[in-house]
Amino acid sequence: MSGVHDLAGRPGFGPVVREAAEPVFHEEWERRMFALMVATFAGGEFNLDEFRYAIERMEPKEYLEGSYYEHWLFAVEQLLIEKGLISEAELRVMRERIEKRKSP
Amino acid sequence: MGDHDHTAPLPDVVLRVKTLESLLVEKKLVDPEALDALIDLYENQIGPKNGARVVARAWVDPEFKAWLLKDATGAVASFGFASDKGKTLVAVENTPKVHNLVVCTLCSCYPWATLGLPPVWYKSAPYRARAAKEPRSVLHEFGTELDDDVEIRIWDSNAEVRYFVLPERPEGTEGLSEEELVELVTRDAMLGVSKVSAPKGRDA
């Protein structure tokens, strides 16, 4: 099935933009997201095909505008929810706890 | 950037990652120390230097080179890098008549154990969309010009098979040791977007 991820040969893209002396990670959250994906993958919670397919199910606009590790975040959340390991309600509660901790 | 006001709300993506990590740790689905170890492994220990060691060995040792081109998975495993388990690795050789270019058009498949994590441009839509269709114009952007009679082969990586390029050994490096050759080999040359240059200050 062809989707927005199937980019080979698609016209309309500009030059390949490179960054000199690019770091492995640009932000701390990217480090954490990378490790979370690799750890849950290594733990056998999902396989690589499921992971890629989860990314491919993103809304085309989100897919094209989202950065690489945002795709990973979307996919890991999605897969762990689908497999019943976590729930949206648990994520919401944890998010509120973190936000509360942050405000004075 | 530079906003250190502790009352400022976290950007949504940062908050979502923090939320996910906290929940997975609380449910004991991940171990925070294992996360730190993974980050250290891929940020500080595994990188293109691994692949450079493989290339330099192939340049000085014809038997190893033959093994690498026949069975890169086994040949690279002999170096003992922390490996991408279950992935088949394929090395493709650049010659004066054939130039190889590696891409993953669908996603970002890449030989992590040999080259480290991929740069942003490799994962970017323009590279994925254009590499197979207009390789010469992409190569031009990387400063790589090939003669018209050079055949370009594109290798589209996938979840099972990862490719990397065995670049041509530059002229003028006959006197260099294997260790010195390692220093010349770049990540970009092992992806095929550039060539390996002879060290500066030497006659090529």
Brief account:
The complex is a heterodimer of chains A (104) and B (204). Chain A is mainly α and 104 residues long.
Give keywords.
heterodimer; A: mainly alpha; Cyclin A, domain 1; 5 helices; 0% strand; globular; B: 204 residues; alpha/beta; Nitrile Hydratase, Chain A; two-stranded parallel sheet; disordered N terminus
What is the strand and helix layout of this fold?
The complex is a heterodimer of chains A (104) and B (204).
Chain A: H1 28-42, H2 48-56, H3 60-65, H4 68-82, H5 88-102
Helix pairs in contact in A: 1-4, 2-4
Chain B: H1 12-26, H2 32-45, H3 48-60, H4 62-70, H5 72-77, E1 88-93, E2 98-103, H6 112-115, H7 120-123, H8 125-130, H9 135-141, E3 151-156, E4 161-166, H10 178-184, H11 187-191
Describe the structure.
The complex is a heterodimer of chains A (104) and B (204). Chain A has 104 residues and is mainly alpha-helical. Chain A has helices at 28-42, 48-56, 60-65, 68-82, 88-102. The longest helix of chain A has 15 residues, at 28-42. Chain A starts with 27 loop residues before the first helix and ends with a helix. The model of chain A has no long low-confidence stretch (mean pLDDT 89). Chain B has two domains: 12-44; 46-191, Alpha-Beta Complex (Nitrile Hydratase, Chain A). Chain B contains eleven helices and four strands; from the N terminus they run αααααββααααββαα. Chain B has helices spanning 12-26, 32-45, 48-60, 62-70, 72-77, 112-115, 120-123, 125-130, 135-141, 178-184, 187-191, and strands at residues 88-93, 98-103, 151-156, 161-166. Mean pLDDT of chain B is 90; it is low at 1-6.
